[in-house]
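Before the break, one more example. Copy the sequence into your notebook; we will annotate it together after we see the structure.
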Amino acid sequence: MALQEVRPRGEVSGMEKRFWLTPPELEKEIQKILGTDYFDPCPYPRREFDALTNDWRKPWYLNPPFKLGDGGPTRFIRKAIEVGGPGVAVFAVNSVVDALLRANIELRSLGRVRWLECETGEPMPSPGLYALAVFKEGEVDG
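Here is what the structure looks like once it is written out:
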C-alpha cells in the first residue's frame, strides 16, 4: 500500500466534522522511518475496518481520530502499544511537552498524582496525569 493511496485523517474538537490529511512533509518523514509499504489502521476515506478490534499489519502508521469523546486517541494509542512495532503514531501534545521534547529532555510518566492539600494534607480527589522532566547537565538541546 503506497503512502499516497491511503492517507490518515483526524477530527478536531469544536469544528464541524471535517477530515485532515497528513501533510506531504510529514509523509516523507514517515517514509524515511517505515518505507512506503505500511499499514494504515485509520485511513481516509474510512473503510469497513475496526482499528481497535482487528489485527494490524506491520509496519503501521497511526494518525488516530482527534475527537476527544469516547476515549479519543488514547484508545488507539493503547492498541498501538498492544500491537507493538515497528510502527509510528502521530498524536497531539501541549506546548509544554513540545518544548521539552524539542530540547531532548527525558520524560517519565508519573501516572495520576494525588497532590496533597496544603492545610489538611488530604489527597486530591480527582488527580490528573503528570510527567517528570529530567534535566541532565550538559544534555539539553536548545
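Residues 1 and 37 are 5 Å apart (CA to CA). Residues 72-83 form the longest helix (12 residues). Try to locate both features in your own notes.
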